[in-house]
Write a structure and sequence with these properties.
The protein is built from 18 helices and 22 strands. 39% of the residues lie in helices and 19% in strands.
Length: 528
């Protein structure tokens, strides 16, 4: 038997048929299916029995409800295949999933084969492409794969012997794949990637287990801590902790920042602050020498993608996107909330309206403000004595400020207003927050999109160059008037282009993971 496909089933009656049809229609034949019912209560058991009777490759097992990890672990023990695949029963596969992964694994004598993924939004039916191998057509090294690789286990074909030889099993916690993925990568002799989206992952499904913590086992504000505690223990148990200590620390901070980003808009401010404190305490316990610096980001969304790549915890509640210096220094008096279909953008626009930057600066007392001026490219709207930034996020929101005066970004009026606001911003920081340092990251709109082998110029290149010329003036003006600011050059970085396959669109305000890493490293060198 070449492959065993483990399919845990728990209350997925409405989705199981799509999953099983995709599995039985594979172009590869030498595989078994372990269909394991984990105490379903919605009729899934009846559907499992119907599928069992359709194909002799299906081995059906039913048991009391124990959770996803225990179900997968049972599958590992019962499997007969050389390789294991883990298919979530609300997802589905491309017909060549098993064939392509097995072929590449055998060809390269790999312990792990991975494919790219389609993320399917169960609410609106849209799908987005996500690569697993790396970015910009450049594959991850083993160490990079540990840190930046998508920890989802279902996109993988894994040699069963690794689990048995090193006694690796899924722990009973939220996000159990996070507890073993980096360890599997570290222990593997070779990892190969099939650069095709062969797995369809269903997102935003109602009652999805991946959206919920195991409340009995872990505090809702400590989601991920149990998984990463197990991960550190696994590295120690297998005798490779010292070898990979540096990568392990970066991995955990990067993944915890990812969890924080996912829960930022779901929790109240006090509850989210408790979550951040739990994570900081965990990092300090695991890595006592860790250099944790508190900072606020002010600028474009891509600036957060940059700081996320630094070797520290990135706190989304300390992000201020879609604001400009003019709106921050000149807040409006009308404070009504706006609404958007994008919850993150809604939060950020409401922060601009309320001028929350100053509130969080006082409340959190950060050591650094890390900022860029990408959002300064937008027009402004004058509202009751102040201004709002008419950013992409603002345009997504339902707002009631349309009948007010618009300040166009390329106007003399805007240039003068910005320079006055800039001076006032610097003076206010000096007067009220004299210990804070500013790091100005000189980001620009990208003029090209592509990958490491090929790039093409944006069609609206003249407009982009015009905006970049304006940004260059702003950066120069700020640094000339702010003696306590440090700056980071970016244009001399290699691959200063937009990733053509970026999941949320190849737009000039976004760069790519490679250049973002280089900029993050430059920022880190300036931090004390």
């Amino acid at each position: 038997m070449k492959i065993s496909v483990i399919v845990p089933v728990y209350n997925v009656y409405s989705w199981l048929d799509i999953c099983m049809e995709s599995l039985l229609n594979q172009s590869f034949n030498d595989y078994e299916i372990l269909l394991i019912n984990d105490g379903s209560t919605d009729g899934s058991e009846r559907k499992c029995l119907q599928w069992k009777n359709k194909d002799r490759r299906i081995r059906y097992i039913t048991k009391m409800n124990e959770g996803l990890s225990a179900t997968r672990n049972l599958g590992i023990r019962e499997a007969k295949g050389i390789y294991l695949a883990f298919l979530d029963s609300d997802d589905w596969l491309d017909k060549n999933f098993l064939l392509d992964l097995y072929t590449e694994a055998e060809k390269h004598d790999a312990d792990i084969a991975e494919c790219d993924v389609y993320r399917y939004n169960d609410i609106n039916g849209q799908k987005s492409y996500r690569s697993s191998y790396g970015c910009m057509a450049k594959e991850y090294s083993k160490e990079e794969h540990m840190i930046y690789g998508n920890t989802a286990i279902w996109k993988c074909l894994i040699r069963r012997d690794i689990f048995l030889r090193y006694n690796i099993y899924f722990p009973n916690c939220h996000s159990p794949a996070r507890a073993i993925y980096a360890l599997l990568i570290a222990l593997s002799n070779n990892i190969v990637n099939v650069k095709k989206p062969l797995y369809y992952y269903r997102t935003f499904r109602k009652d999805s287990l991946s959206e919920k913590p195991r409340d009995i086992l872990e505090n809702n504000n400590s989601i991920g801590v149990m998984a990463f505690t197990e991960l550190v223990y696994g590295f120690r148990r297998c005798g490779i902790y010292e070898k990979y200590k540096f990568q392990l620390e970066r991995t955990i901070k990067y993944k915890l920042s990812d969890i924080l980003a996912a829960f930022f808009h779901r929790k109240q401010e006090k509850e989210f602050a408790s979550m951040v404190n739990d994570y900081r305490s965990f990092i300090k316990k695991q890595f006592p020498e860790s250099n944790e610096i508190k900072y606020i980001t002010l600028g474009g969304y891509n600036l957060n993608r940059i700081t996320w790549l630094m070797n520290m915890l990135h706190i989304p509640s300390l992000r201020f996107d879609f604001s400009s210096l003019i709106s921050i220094v000149n807040p409006i008096s009308q404070k009504e909330n706006v609404i958007s279909n994008n919850k993150y953008r809604e939060i950020m626009v409401n922060r601009d309206i309320k001028s929350d930057f100053w509130y969080y600066l006082k409340k959190e007392d950060p050591q650094y403000i890390i900022m860029d001026f990408i959002e300064e490219r937008f027009d402004l709207i004058q509202v009751e004595g102040g201004y709002l930034t008419m950013s992409d996020a603002y345009k997504d929101c339902k707002v009631n400020f349309d009948n007010n005066h618009i300040i166009y970004r390329d106007s003399i009026e805007c240039k003068r207003l910005w320079e006055v606001s800039c001076i006032n911003f610097i003076k206010k920081i000096q007067a009220y927050y004299p210990s804070i340092k500013i790091i100005l990251v000189k980001n620009y709109l990208s003029e090209y999109k592509g990958d490491i082998f090929y790039s093409e110029m944006y069609e609206n290149i003249n407009m982009i160059k015009s905006i970049n010329k304006m940004l260059k003036h702003y950066y120069s003006f700020f640094m000339s008037n702010c003696s306590f600011a440090l700056d980071v050059e970016t244009l001399d970085c290699q691959y200063y282009i937009t990733d053509k396959d970026y999941e949320y669109g190849a737009v000039p305000s976004h760069l790519n993971e490679l250049v973002n890493r280089e900029i993050a490293y430059r920022i880190e060198k300036l931090l004390i």
